Amino acid sequence: MTELKRTLLIIGGTLCVVAGTVGVFVPVLPTTPFLLLAAVCYGRSSPRFYRWLTTNRWFGAYIRNYREGRGVALWHKVVTLALLWLSIGYVIFYVVDPWWARLLLLGVALGVTVHLLCTKTLSRANRQSPLSRGEEPTTDSH
Q1: Domain boundaries, position 59
Q2: Torsion angle defined by CA atoms of residues 100, 103, 107 and 113, in that order, rounded to the nearest 10 degrees
């Protein structure tokens, strides 16, 4: 791989991480696709950045579980759908005037909802253990 291609992939991955992070706070902007694209960019260009992303304390387990087909935690689904519909509803009723823009936003919200509901729900038994992440085991007294 050329140095230019590697650099462009790292820049692209970094921009996707930024967009995904913004998407956490702006429900109209999707988080998951940007983080998955960042993982692909980093995976092809920099083992160090890829490792950082997939072991990141905020996004790491989420990305690994999604990419490995384990699913998305139920509380992630509930919070995502609630924020999505609250924000889209507000924009549709109070911000956007043209009927076609409202219809487009409604279509986006429906598409995201269907995708999220069709995505496997992460069970407790299916979550990655600390050992599979390379961490030291902890003992819980609960």
Answers
A1: 1-68
A2: 150
Q: Which of 29, 46, 68 is the last residue in one of the domains? A: 68
| 65, 129, 131, 132, 133 from 136: Cα distances, Å | 19, 10, 6, 10, 9
Backbone angles phi, psi at 124, to 5 degrees: -60, -40
Residue 122 lies in a domain: yes
Q: Please list, in sequence order, all residues whose beta carbon lies within 8 angstroms of the beta carbon of residue 48, skipping any fewer than 6 positions away.
A: none
Task: Provide the β-strand partners of residue 121.
Answer: 72
Q: C-alpha distances in angstroms, 29 versus 46, 51, 72, 105, 127?
A: 26, 25, 18, 12, 26
**pLDDT tens, N- to C-terminus, the chain (142 residues):** 799 999 999 999 999 999 989 988 876 677 878 888 999 999 999 999 999 999 999 888 888 888 888 888 898 889 888 888 988 899 999 999 999 999 999 998 899 899 889 989 988 766 654 444 454 433 333 3
Domain total in the chain: 2
